[in-house]
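Task: sequence design from structure.
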């Protein structure tokens, strides 16, 4: 896929690759209003699914989302990667989009990245939202999902993941077997599509290696931007106590417990509703592209 300049990328149907200071990045921009950068999870691939653009957020914000380094059509440079690399990638994307500042929403791995970005360049974030986040270190890490790579059987791998994503799911496996089998089949299919996409088969383990080193707990007290923290009541991948730690150490944050699992950000309406209510009241300036 050929790299093109930002102006052209934003004038035609997305996604398109753009050149930033760190990478060629596959990015999609949509909607209108103040700028909002969405940082997706560890399996975020624009060519497969981007629920942020199906939400109500593009009705209120100009939303930008990109494949993380190593996934989708974004570059996978040589060497070991760290969470700081992902934060610098996000900062370089803001620069390439000519966004002096933006609201930032991070989901799961993207929430980890968002916290590192907030520590790296706090002046670039007007408002911050974290869904299914963990601080790492003394604040507690997310479940080590890299362990799933050691499970060779796709169905067993799906069962393990589904049980962590929502701790109600094992009960479904016992009492609603038909629906549980559909969940397993859907998970197996989604994983197969993800691994077959672009260079995900090699980039994904490298991303998970960076994820395993995540620890931003020491920097939380210095992150002063207004922050919405969302936690799924039944999430065992990023349990509620991780969100509670984040909220207790971020000076200007509020915790919202959602009646859902790890994927609560777009599976339930409340997080987006809260963001629109809280952020649109700030009368932020429209994005300049």
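Answer:
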């Amino acid at each position: 896929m050929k790299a093109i300049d930002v102006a052209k990328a934003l004038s035609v149907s997305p996604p398109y690759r753009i050149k930033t200071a760190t990478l060629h990045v596959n990015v999609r921009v949509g909607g209108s209003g103040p700028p909002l950068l969405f940082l997706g999870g560890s399996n975020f691939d624009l060519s497969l699914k981007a629920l942020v653009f199906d939400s109500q957020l593009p009705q209120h914000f100009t939303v930008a989302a990109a494949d993380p380094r190593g996934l989708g059509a974004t570059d996978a440079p040589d060497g070991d990667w760290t969470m700081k690399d992902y934060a610098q990638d996000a900062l370089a994307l803001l620069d390439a989009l000519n966004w002096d500042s933006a609201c930032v929403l991070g989901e799961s791995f993207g929430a980890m990245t968002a916290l590192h970005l907030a520590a790296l360049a706090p002046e670039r974030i007007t408002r911050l939202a974290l869904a299914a986040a963990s601080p790492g270190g003394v604040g507690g890490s997310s479940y080590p999902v890299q362990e799933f790579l050691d499970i060779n059987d796709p169905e067993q791998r799906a069962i393990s993941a589904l049980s962590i994503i929502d701790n109600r799911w094992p009960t479904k496996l016992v009492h609603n077997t038909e629906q549980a089998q559909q969940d397993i089949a859907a998970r197996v299919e989604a994983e197969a599509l993800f691994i077959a996409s672009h260079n995900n088969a090699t980039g994904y383990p490298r991303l998970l290696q960076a994820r395993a080193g995540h620890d931003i707990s020491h920097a939380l007290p210095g992150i002063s931007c207004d922050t919405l923290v969302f936690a799924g009541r039944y999430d065992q991948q990023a349990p509620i106590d991780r969100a509670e730690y984040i909220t207790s150490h971020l000076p200007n944050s509020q915790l919202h417990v959602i009646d859902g699992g790890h994927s609560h950000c777009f599976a339930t309406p409340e997080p987006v509703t809260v963001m629109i209510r809280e952020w649109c009241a700030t009368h932020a300036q429209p994005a300049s592209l």
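The radius of gyration is 18 Å.
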